[in-house]
Amino acid sequence: MEVGLYGLGRMGGNMVIRLLRGGHRVVASNRSRGPVDEAAGQGAVPAYTLDELVQTLQSSPKIVWLMVPSGKVTDDTIHYVMKLLKPGDIIIDGGNSNWKDTVRHAEEVKGAGIHFLDVGTSGGIWGLKVGYSLMIGGEREAFEQCEPIFKTLAPENGYGYMGASGAGHFVKMVHNGVEYGMLQAYGEGFEIIEKSQFKPDLREVTRVWQNGSVVRSWLLDLAALAFADDPELEKIRGYVEDSGEGRWTVQAAIDENVPAPVITLSLLQRFVSRQDESFSAKVIAALRNQFGGHAVTFETGETGGVRHQA
Predict the structure, then answer these.
(1) Which of 52, 144, 172, 232 is catalytic?
(2) Exposure string (b/e) for 208-235, b if CB count within 10 Å is 16 or more?
(3) Quick one: which of 36, 224, 255, 304 has the most CB atoms within 10 Å?
(4) What pLDDT is attached to residue 289?
(5) Strands, E assignment, the chain
C-alpha cells in the first residue's frame, strides 16, 4: 500500500522504516527538513511540505497518517490537510490526542466527506524492532481499507478495531493510565528492597523476577536494562513527567464513577517527584511540632522543637 506519514519524531521516523521494510510506498514529511532527508535515505519518498506530501501520493483513496503533538498542533494540521484531500480520502491521527478532541475531529472530517481513524499507538522507541500496539477507532470500512498498514506496523495480534471514532484514543489513554500504576508499583517495590538491611543486587533481583515470576513483564525487562547500565541509578534524577493521558484517565474514572485509586495515586506521585521541597510537608512538620512538640529539621540542618509559653 501507499501512505503519507507526517511527523517524523522518535516514533514516526521508525514507523516509516518499518513500513518500508514491509514493502509499502511511504511519502515522508516533517516540519523540519532533516528528518525528511533521513527518511529518504531509508527509501521513503521525501516531501518537504504537507502540500507536497498530498500531491505526491498516487493511490486512491489517499491516506495521510499524522504523528504530531496533541492539542492545537493536531487541530491545525487536521484542518489544513482536510483542505488538500478529496471526499473518500483517509486521515489517521496516530498521536496521543484526547479522545474528546478526536470525536470532534471525526465530525469535522466527516462533514468534508473524508474518513477519519484514531489510532492509539504504543511501542515507543522499541516499536521499530518489536512492532507497535495499535488501538483503532473510526469507521470500520476505513479500518479495513488501511488494515495492511496496521498489520505491518504491529506484531502478531498487536492491532485491533476498538469501535467508533474516539475509541482508539480512549483505550490508549486508559492503557497509559494502567502503565502509570505499574511503573509506580515497580518503583516502590525496588525502593523497599534497596532501603532494606539486605540490599541485594537489583540486577540479580530483576533476573530472577524475569523468569517464572508472576510480576514478569516487558517493563521489568526494561528495569533490568536500566540497572545493568546504572546499578544505583546515580546518573538520573527522580523527576517524572507525564504526557497528560494519566490525568485524562483519572478524569474519565471520575466522570464514570469508577474508583481508580492506584492510577490516581500514581499520577499524584509524579507531581511529588517534581518537588525539591514540598511545602505541604513543611506544613505537616510545623503542625506536628506545634501540637506535639515533635522535632523539626531546619534549613541549617539542625533539629529542634517549639516550646509554648504559659
Answers:
(1) 172
(2) ebeeeeeeeeeebeebbebbeeeeeeee
(3) 36
(4) 74
(5) 2-6, 25-29, 45-47, 63-66, 90-93, 115-122, 133-138, 159-163, 296-297, 303-304
179 catalytic residue (yes or no): yes
The span from the first CA to the last CA of the chain, in angstroms, equals 85
Backbone angles phi, psi at 69, to 5 degrees: -60, 145
- Label residues 264-291 b or e (16+ Cβ within 10 Å = b): bebbeebeeeeeeeeeeeeeeeeeeeee
Map residue 65 onto helix, strand or coil: strand
Question: What are the grid coordinates assigned to 152, written together?
Answer: 505491518
Output DSSP code: residue 44: P
Active site annotation includes 172: yes
Look at the pTM and tell me if it is higher than 0.85: yes
- In the numeric block, which cell numbers belong to residue 228? 545493568
Q: Which residues contact 240 (CB under 8 A, 6 or more apart)?
A: 269, 270, 273, 274
Query: In this predicted model, what pLDDT tens digit does every residue of 178-210 receive, in sequence order?
Result: 999 999 999 999 999 999 999 999 999 999 999
The secondary structure of residue 1, as a DSSP letter, is -
Residue in the block written with cell 538491611: 197
Q: What cell does 9 get? A: 519524531
H/E element holding 178? helix 167-195
Secondary element (H or E) of residue 51: helix 50-56
- Catalytic one of 2, 179, 256, 282: 179
Q: Which three cell numbers stand for residue 15?
A: 514507523
Reported as a single tens digit per residue, the pLDDT across 121-146 is 999 889 999 999 999 999 999 999 99
Q: b/e for 115-128, b at 16 or more Cβ within 10 A?
A: bbbbbbbbbeeebb
- Burial environment of residue 169 by CB neighbours within 10 A (0 to 12, 13 to 18, 19 or more): buried
Cβ distance 125 to 132 under 8 Å?
A: no
